[in-house]
Design brief:
- Helix content is 44%, strand content 14%.
- By secondary structure, the protein is of the alpha/beta class.
- The protein folds into four domains: 16-160, NusB-like (N-utilizing Substance Protein B Homolog, Chain A); 168-202, no CATH class; 208-263, Sun protein, domain 3 (Alpha-Beta Plaits, 2-Layer Sandwich); 274-468, Vaccinia Virus protein VP39 (Rossmann fold, 3-Layer(aba) Sandwich), CATH 3.40.50.
- Strands 5, 6, 7, 8, 9, 10, 11, 12 and 13 form a nine-stranded mixed β-sheet that branches. A four-stranded antiparallel β-sheet has the order 2-3-1-4.
- Helix 6 packs antiparallel against helix 7 and helix 17 crosses helix 18 (413-422).
- The chain is globular and about 75 Å long.
């Protein structure tokens, strides 16, 4: 997924001086979880890198209990960033641009604790924020943080800081911490009720999902093995091979280390099975890294004949590492999905289209603050390119399956329609409802199109199945 430049303030481009400013606290992120969370938030918003680029390294400095708090403070603040900024502007009677840049992450993390966490005493949150401010700026800045935090501490509920915007779409965007333009797009595409349900789902914590393999005993044997190691799991209500982790250290278990499980959202598992693979089917995963689609296909039908391809050298390293851990030996080639194909023909070619990632905001909340209208256009052009290139590898009567972790029509329908408009050899799979079993068929929206919006505990995905004429 392509990463984008962040905004210094929610929904706006950062000022030139802010982009150059480096976050150099006199207290190290090693000292304190809240200092580390402020650093992760600031670095994420000031860069084009994913939050995990900073969070993963910071987590290593703390024990298990503090790791959970650091993850919650960092990702929770990024999820609720716009609503938090609204409260801070109201409590301080200043715009975020008028607040000293070094103090913004301190205030944001502190406000998140006061407004959305109830197990941390207010005095502790206020004292810690003021202490951070003292190390970052002058005495006046620390006094300012103290005053703002105390005002928020007196009203520790989001409902106590109502959003009074007259425009319904803008009010919804602020209340649920999303950019205005995205909310307007989705209201037009899905309606106001479905949009608000997605916005609410996007702000929930993301649980860890696992995918099992039928040739390794399925999820029942995997669940038993994990429970023996103190990991609490429950079956996915959607994926017959999925488990949802409730507690425990999954990555230290023998089952995980021996390759009996792969971390994958339950909606992502389902998306790879549209339609389910047939025994012995010859399949090319044209943009395979890090391996999710291929491993889901193997999990469902162990006899599929898979070839994996990708062009990114770093992602190929990750894919090879996953193959080793899962003890899978599969053909792997370096190939650009946008080129003219591998020279062979396959029963099915599956590929991830470049997309905005709008279905994964729960896991990657920073993406909300990096998207723009123009980014959809750029990603659409990339998506069309890889569709054109991958189509050459589809045999007569075969399937070309385009998958995105996005629910927006610009990443999906618009790209597929442009491809079909210039390529008469392909058509949307009219028999998708017959090929897809229950309950997977409930998300078929139209001939050849399957879409699951973010809700409950899963991400959002869209799939288009195109059939090459015989």
């Amino acid at each position: 997924m392509t990463r984008r430049r962040s905004a210094g303030r929610t929904g706006q481009s950062p000022r030139r001086g802010d982009r150059r400013r480096r976050f150099t606290p006199r207290r190290s992120p090693d000292d304190n979880v809240r200092v580390a969370a402020s650093w992760v938030v600031e670095r994420t918003l000031a860069s084009a890198a994913p939050a995990s680029s900073f969070l993963d390294g910071a987590l290593q400095r703390f024990d298990e209990r503090d790791q959970g708090l650091l993850r919650e403070l960092s990702l929770g603040t990024l999820r609720w960033l716009r609503r938090i900024d609204h409260v801070l502007e109201t409590a301080s009677n200043r715009s975020m641009d008028a607040i000293e840049p070094d103090l913004r992450p301190v205030l944001r993390v502190g406000a998140y604790q006061l407004l959305l966490l109830d197990r941390i005493p207010a005095y502790a949150v206020v004292d810690e924020a003021v202490e951070q401010a003292r190390h970052l700026t002058h005495r006046g800045g620390a006094s300012f943080v103290n005053a703002v935090m105390r005002r928020i501490a007196r009203k520790r509920r989001l409902s106590a800081w109502p959003v009074t915007e007259a425009d319904p779409a803008r009010r919804m965007a602020i209340e649920w911490s999303h950019p205005d333009f995205l909310v307007r797009r989705w209201i037009e595409q899905f309606g106001a009720e479905a949009t608000e349900a997605m916005l609410e789902a996007n702000n929930r914590q993301k649980p860890l999902h696992l995918a099992a393999f039928r040739d390794r005993g399925g999820r029942e044997l995997l669940a038993e093995s994990l429970l023996d190691c103190g990991v609490e799991v429950v079956p996915s209500s959607l994926s017959p091979l999925g488990l949802i982790v409730r507690s425990g250290r999954v990555f230290e278990t023998e089952a995980f280390q021996h390759g009996d499980a792969y971390v994958q959202d339950e909606a992502s598992q389902l998306a790879a099975w549209i339609p389910p693979p047939r025994p012995g089917e010859k399949i090319l995963d044209a943009a395979a890294a890090p391996g999710g689609k291929a491993f889901a296909l193997l999990g469902w039908e162990p006899t599929v004949r898979l070839t994996l391809a990708d062009i990114d050298p770093h992602r190929l390293v990750t894919l090879r590492s996953n193959l080793r851990r899962l003890r899978r030996s599969l053909p792997l080639v370096a190939n650009d999905a946008g080129s003219s194909g591998l020279g062979g023909l396959f029963d099915r070619v599956v590929l991830d289209l470049p997309c905005s990632g709008t279905g994964t905001f729960r896991k990657h909340p920073e993406l909300k603050w990096r998207l723009s209208e123009g980014e959809f256009d750029r990603l659409g052009r990339l998506g069309l390119r890889v569709l054109r290139g991958s189509a050459a590898s589809v045999g007569p009567g075969g399937l070309l399956v385009a998958i995105t972790c996005s629910i927006d029509t610009a990443d999906n329908e618009e790209v597929v329609e442009r491809f079909l408009g210039e390529n008469e050899e392909f058509a949307l799979e009219s028999d998708l409802a017959r090929l897809v079993p229950a309950p997977l068929d409930r998300w078929i929206e139209a001939p050849g199109r399957w879409r699951m919006l973010p809700e409950a505990e899963h991400d959002g995905f869209t799939v288009h199945a195109l059939r090459r004429r015989s």
